[in-house]
Amino acid sequence: MQWYLKVLKQYADFSGRARRTEFWMFTLFSAIASIVLGLIDTLIGTSTMIATGSSYFYSPGLLQGIYALGVLIPTLAVTVRRLHDTDRTGWWLLIALIPFVGGIVLLVFMCLEGTRGPNQYGMDPKQQDAMGGGYPQQQAPGYPQQGGYPQQQGYQGQP
User: Fold this and answer.
1) CA–CA distance, 29 with 24 (Å, rounded to integer)
2) Burial class of residue 38, CB neighbours in 10 A (0-12, 13-18, 19+)
3) What is the rounded distance in angstroms from the CA atom of residue 40 to the CA atom of residue 51?
4) Is 63 helix (H, G, I), strand (E, B) or coil?
5) Structural contact between residues 4 and 25, judged by C-beta atoms closer than 8 angstroms
6) Residues 6+ apart with CB under 8 A from 92
7) CB atoms within 10 A of CB 159
8) CB neighbour list of residue 15: distance below 8 Å, 6 or more residues apart
9) What are the DSSP E strand ranges found in 6-116?
């Protein structure tokens, strides 16, 4: 959930790099939210399902449509940052407009490991995580911010 919120906080940030974990966790939580909202739309009657012969046509409802519009820009932004992590320009996103092949190529790009070390789009997000920056972590109450174990009162180190 922290990765999802991180992407939403960087709502329209198209610069920098995004790790695979950030992209795929956002995609997973976004898909789950869309499915839940679709079910709610079906229950309240704002979505439409039409059967035509051997196929079905589903028209999203009000809640699912509003959600899709709300996450459109963050989805584009995290996809561009993910492309940056593989040392590609964000314009590669347009390859998805090519029927069939474009989506497959973009999927492969999203699955590839990012460039190790800094590239033209910024520092390696994995290195930033190792240095203490990067993805959000919640600190437990009573524990130091820099990591390690809390010191016990009265312990001097040597008996």
Assistant:
1) 9
2) middle
3) 20
4) helix
5) yes
6) 83, 106, 109
7) 4
8) 81, 84, 121, 122
9) 48-52, 55-59
User: How confident is the model over 75-128, as pLDDT tens digits?
Assistant: 999 999 999 999 999 999 999 999 999 999 999 999 999 999 999 998 988 887
d(CA 107, CA 92) in angstroms, rounded, equals 11
Query: How distant is the alpha carbon of residue 6 from its chain centre?
Result: 8
Render pLDDT for 56-70 as a digit per residue (tens, 0 to 9): 888 889 999 999 999
CA proximity to 36, closest of 74, 63, 59, 66: 63
Residue positions counted in the chain: 159
Helix (H, G, I), strand (E, B) or coil at 157: coil
Q: Among residues 132, 159, 134, which one has the least CA distance to residue 148?
A: 132
Place of tokens 């051997």: 54
Please report how the helices 72-85 and 20-44 are oriented relative to each other, as an axis angle in degrees rounded to 10: 160
d(CA 57, CA 65) in angstroms, rounded, equals 16
Q: pTM for the complete prediction?
A: 0.75
Residue 49, beta-bridge partner list: 58
